[in-house]
Specification:
The complex is a heterodimer of chains A (about 575) and B (about 290).
Chain A (H helix, E strand, L loop, with lengths): L8 H7 L4 H8 L18 H4 L4 H33 L2 E3 L2 E3 L2 H12 L18 H14 L1 H7 L2 H10 L2 H12 L5 E4 L15 E5 L4 E12 L5 E7 L10 E7 L4 E6 L10 E14 L5 H38 L1 E2 L2 E2 L4 H40 L4 H40 L1 H4 L4 H10 L8 H12 L2 H12 L7 H22 L4 H30 L3 H25 L5 H7 L2
Parallel strand pairs in A: 3-6
Antiparallel strand pairs in A: 1-2, 4-5, 5-9, 6-7, 7-9, 8-9, 10-11
Helix pairs in contact in A: 1-11, 2-11, 4-5, 4-6, 6-7, 6-10, 6-11, 8-9, 8-10, 10-11, 10-12, 10-14, 11-12, 11-18, 11-19, 12-14, 12-15, 15-18, 16-18, 17-18, 17-19, 18-19
Chain B lengths: L3 E6 L1 E3 L22 E3 L1 H16 L4 E7 L5 H9 L4 E5 L9 H15 L4 E5 L10 H9 L3 E11 L3 E8 L2 E8 L2 E5 L11 H7 L5 H5 L4 H9 L6 E3 L40 H13 L5
Classes of the chains: A alpha+beta (about 575), B alpha/beta (about 290).
Amino acid sequence: MANFYTDNEDIKFHLNNPKMKIIVDLKERNYKITENEYHDSDGLSPDDLKPHNYEDALDNYSEVLGIVGEICGDIIDPNAESVDEEGPTLVDNRVHYAKGTDENMLALKQAKLTGMTLPRKYGGLNFPATAYNMAVEMVSRGDASLMNLFGLQDIAETINAFADEEVKKNFLPRFASGEATGAMILTEPDAGSDLQAVNLKAHLDEATNTWKLNGVKRFITNGNAELSLVLARSEDGTKDGRGLSMFLYDRDDTVQIRRIENKMGIHGSPTCEMVFKDAPCILIGKRKFGLIKYVMALMNGARLGIGAQSVGIAEAAYREALKYAKERAQFGKTIDQFPGVYEMLTDMKVKVAASRTLLYETARFVDMYKVYEEIEEERKLTLEEKQEMKKYKKRAGFYTPLLKGLTSEYCNSIAYDAIQIHGGTGFMKDFPVERLYRDARITSIYEGTTQLQVLAAIRGVTSCLFTEMMEEYQSAKVAPDLEYLVKHLKEMKNEYVEAIKLVEAPEDNEFLDFHSRRLVEMAGNIIMGHLLVLDADRDSKFKTIAEVYIKKGQPENTEKFNKIKTIDRDDLGMYKALSV
Amino acid sequence: MAFKIIVLAKQVPDTRNVGNDAMKADGTVNRSALPAIFNPDDLNALEQALQIKEKNPGSEIIILTMGPPRAADIIRESLYRNADKGYLITDRRFAGADTLATSYVISKAIEKIGKYDIILSGRQAIDGDTAQVGPQTAEKLNIPQITYAEEITSITKDKITVKRRLERGVEEVECTLPVLLTVHGSAKACRPKNAKLFMKYKHAKTPTELQTLDDDYLGQEIKNKAFLNIEEISLDDLDCDLVKIGLAGSPTKVKTIQNVVHTAKDSMKLEDNDDDIKSLMGELINNHTLG
């Protein structure tokens, strides 16, 4: 009878962030039923489901997250061990999930949680990304591998954002009802981080006026999905990203699943190698916009999801470590009383809180611009609204890679420490931490490695966007007893500005890239420090957390600053020389 | 074939999470210290009903519960899981009922609700653990009953086949309709609440709850939407013999309640050898623990 929502007050704390009000008011068009809403595929009228004010909407989110929490605690978490052991199997070109995965998916489907962010008219719940990612966090805490099936709702959302109405009407209800799962089919043997190299061919079959796909894709999460988005080269003779388009593929027998990978972690999620042979598909949006527009949108949603997955795994690992440390006695006392252990436990707790606050700040930015994009489809936005949309789109573009890069690394270090606290026992397969450690490892790799996230975030952390965020955070009014923390953060910011100057001075991009991870981590410490102070202002229980985080972050930043000062541009030569 | 299904459900104190304050000094249950939940076996019964409905479109599930006004939660929770309608039997005059008086009132309410094909209930409630209300209701309605049901293997217009979970195995039985089934806790667990149905029904209220509702907007909504109204059944709605209800109709009297604490009296240490095991076996046979 566990409930992952009610046993973790921090999720509700973030749901109740006052900044949610404007998002929800917009998302529900001020709680008036618009002409765009009609009966959904379950026959429910818009009037049955529409909240009548902000409190009602928030109550819906909270209670529905309670349902998610119950499913996580009662079904998903208890199944995680057997799912990890059993994994999916490939028989006659069909992928069969582990028994536990099937049970989990059925429960989520019965609870109508498979189209959380889709509009109601397509059968969805019309929830903001913030609430949806709270569900993703809890699911990941129960079973990280299930997130790869549950957390693929961005695929439906991408179709919703870019496909025409007919495609949406035909396909979105299948996602929302849980009848179809999704896959994003991007990677190829020679196109991983560099998707411009994608080579899968798409050609328009003149006779049937249908697009057909031919080629090989690899490392495809849930490649067996009923509905997939495929990135393919539609423009013959092109070599770069401008020749790629996005297609919707409805699974039939023209695609062969050659094998499923034998992975280190997230065993429940099938990773497929697929061969397309004249597979019929539908063009989504405009030709040539596949990579530059649609995949970027898709990936940003997915990266936010990995942020949530990282927080979920980290939460699970922290809880396991804390529980073990409180029970395990050595030298006549439980090990949580030894400084070496309680320092680790506190660090873990603080990192989880920092990751979570960054996660939901980012999710709110995403919600803000997306809701304006939705409204823009219904009517012309005012100049002010347009500016808001642009502002939050930029912020989301900055924070998403920052979140994905930093929280996935935190998640890994928390899982590492959780094993450490278990000692030899943690190295055995007897406790869940061993699985969590393996599952955590992928978070800093897929949907773009940390090294790539850092490069995506560096433009943000060295631009006026960072300054804009600093001004906003620094000017926020906080309780007098928190002001000294803001003072520390201001010092950190000044030091950080000095570091940027040093790195930018030679006007050498390679030098900037070389130090980019240090800079992004420094910026991350300052941003998460501010967010924790703001959290502490709303709830005093975060005060100590903010204090510990900033007290640790400040010397960390100074150390990075010193490194930047020490390793100058000419030193890069040594690094290159030794790496061969 | 569409079936009309009545599910009997009870709101119970969550006796699985008992703390030190679970019992009052006089030995009665301290209900305020325990959260009120949907009786677990009744959820298994509801799942069976939902499966029948899934396989037989057009079937209707009516949830029937008896208790204080707050037991309306049970009906809402069932609506969130796709039950169609609910009735709350509530009246101060029913208070203090034992299983006999309870099953009497329930059977009267079922007669009032009208024709039905199947009645499902949990095998037993976790507060009283009597397992009597289901069977007694069947007797009073004069219909056959199948207890300890674990799975409905088939159901047609006039025949149902049911697997029963017994102490030493499984038994498959066949019966005519209408029938009452009490469902065992080993039956398939109930599905989760449906998020959409939650949003649709969360404001559903009983007339009693409406009296204390301080929200004009909601009040109007509930007036406009029939599905947001949960019906109550009181003594006045039923044709009951007054001596058969409430405390008066309850022959069960609690004499005393003892707080039993299990403690191990003595223990024996065995070595891993044939002699020790042989002597233990002899002892167990002699004191009739075995054989």
